[in-house]
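WARN  no MSA supplied for this record, continuing single-sequence
INFO  ligand: zinc ion
INFO  echoing inputs
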Amino acid sequence: MEEEAIQGQVHCPVCDSDDICECIRIGQVPVYCNVLHETREAALGAPMGEMDLRFCAACGHLFNAAFDPARVDYSSEYENSLHYSGRFRAYARSLAEDLVQRHGLHGKTIIEIACGQGDFLALLCSLGGNRGIGFDPSHVPGRSEAVGGADLTFVQDYYSETYGDLKADLVCCRHALEHMANPGSFLSRVRRAIGKDSTAVFFEVPNALFTLRDLGIWDIIYEHCGYFCAGSLRAVFRRNGFSVKRIQSEFGGQFLALHASPGGCEDEVEAAAAPDLAQLVRGFAAHYRSKVETWRGTLRRLRADGRRTVLWGAGSKGVSFVNALAVSEEIGLLVDLNPHKDGRFVPGTGHRVRTPGYLADYRPDTVLVMNPLYEEEIRRDLQDMGLSPQILVDRPR
Ligand SMILES: [Zn+2]
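INFO  complex generated
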């Protein structure tokens, strides 16, 4: 009995505290938001998982206590490139320029962990004449046009101290830490691989504060087992041998960017006034359900009025949205700029995904936009196609 109680005790994956409270349970979500399917049948039968989001009162970390890492395997089927959006490319470019300038990256070596198809690494290398080594088991050679010409090597594997003999001036990693059940052990492996070198370190993750405070609730997906706030992001780096130099929110508050160096020097990050996360967590489940209900009501009304509605963006936000609402014919299809998604089907609900060109014939009455940062770009694209549908934007609170 006692042993069972000990096993049932949930500890924070960042700071190991057992001061944990419940945040929200969400029954059935796709295990992979970023794997679209060849057929509707396969999409409807896609593996589903459970979210049991818990909050650590000690460090402010949110995590899915029901996450099973054995269910998630990032093979080459994994398609999470955001690079087809001009708005996202502009952000990536300004970030790359800042990194090159900040660390004097000219003729240097850069390692990117979880580099995807290598677009960001190619950008870093082309801006400073650098050499890039990208790690990602889901990398498909020859997929990206951006990587041609640059001095790039790709390793279709997870990064670890096995690759410790590869030395770099910058190690960067964007949107991967939130996928790891044990981010601390991953960071300690990165730290060991860097060794005594004076390597600069840059990580970027989704910002849990955007989810909790601004109700960016479509970012809650099974692949993301951890949700970092500035406090827990700082804690996980400090506990694993890094000095944190700077943490800032980026991309309209949706991301957290962390600059660090291998330990040995003091943190330079100032303690910002921390928002009352515990209070946000307490009200979150009610706010989440109310937001889902409001959208469900809106979509049912549109359907009853005979309006054709499409959702722009078949990334994690869009896939998460249709599954959270459990809608079917209320939404005709999902639109995505990424041509590799065209004709495929959304896990869970089975919606079809098409490229924007399809809309010229489809002529939607209403277009849903999940990320307000893409609104302007989407309006322009629709206008260029001679379309003027009603546009509904999911705005932060
Ligand atoms: Zn914690």
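DSSP finds eleven helices and 16 strands in the chain.
INFO  checksum written, moving to next record
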